[in-house]
Amino acid sequence: MGGKGSKKARASLELTPKEIAMLKANTKFSEKEIREWHAGFLRDCPNGKLDKKKFVDVYKQFYPQGKADSFCKYAFNTFDANNDGTIDFDEFLLAIAATSQGDLDDRLEVAFEMYDVSGDGQIDQKELANLISAMYDLVGESDRKGDRDPKKRAVEIITKLDVGGDKKLNKQEFIAGCKNDPVIRRMLAPNV
């Protein structure tokens, strides 16, 4: 009556030595820190999976004045590396590390992946405008007129950073442009 299945489910919630070794190799976390993150993750996600709804709920705690739903769609899809509709502990900790521990290039690369919704290696004006709108929603920004219009901001940003002249940003243009412009860097990668 499910004895084997329930044992396997329990085992998948435990950190294996191989998993710890992989996480230590790909993050700056110690084994103790990995185990602490894991315990917290299981407290919040007893089944070992973070679904989109729970992900949004977590973001809402950090941004109570805003609407997290739109922004979380971008972030969730970026961190759900295997596209199974959930974020497991490994995906979660690698995402935390990439957005908090990496050097500036690493962190901007994660930002680029999040904003390249179509996955074509380019950020176009529509993708950027949609993302700016989602960021405004997240922080509760309702003034979207004049210079704050998401479409206008997207055009300005791409015009400023687009070296190739194709009205899109590739990863190199995005990273170089963000690194060289403190205002854009803060807007697109606020934790950098």
Description of the molecule:
The chain is built from eleven helices and four strands. With 192 residues, it is mostly helical. The chain has two domains: 17-101, EF-hand (Recoverin, domain 1); 104-191, Recoverin, domain 1, CATH 1.10.238.10. The strands form two sheets. It has a two-stranded antiparallel ribbon. The protein has a two-stranded antiparallel sheet with strand order 3-4. α5 (69-79) packs across α8 and α6 (89-100) crosses α7. The termini are far apart.
Please give a handful of descriptors for the protein shown.
192 residues; mainly alpha; two-stranded antiparallel ribbon; 11 helices; 6% strand; disordered N terminus
SSE topology:
Blueprint: H1 3-12, H2 17-26, H3 31-44, E1 49-51, H4 52-62, H5 69-79, E2 86-88, H6 89-100, H7 104-115, E3 122-124, H8 125-139, H9 150-161, E4 168-170, H10 171-180, H11 182-188
Antiparallel strand pairs: 1-2, 3-4
Helix pairs in contact: 4-5, 5-7, 5-8, 6-7, 7-10, 8-9, 10-11
CATH class of the largest domain: Mainly Alpha
Q: Over all CA atoms, what is the radius of gyration?
A: 19 Å
The global form is globular
Q: Percent helix among the residues?
A: 55-70%
Distance between the termini: 51 Å
Oligomer: single chain
Reported by name, the CATH topology of the largest domain is Recoverin, domain 1
Number of strands: 4
Tell me the domain tally. 2
- Give the low-pLDDT segments: 1-11
* Relevant CATH superfamily of the largest domain: EF-hand
The largest beta-sheet arranges its strands as: 1-2
Largest sheet: 2 strands, antiparallel
CATH A-level architecture of the largest domain: Orthogonal Bundle
Proportion of beta-strand residues: 5-15%
What is the average of the pLDDT values?
82
Structural class: mainly alpha
What is the N-to-C order of secondary-structure elements (H for helix, E for strand)? HHHEHHEHHEHHEHH
The helix count comes to 11
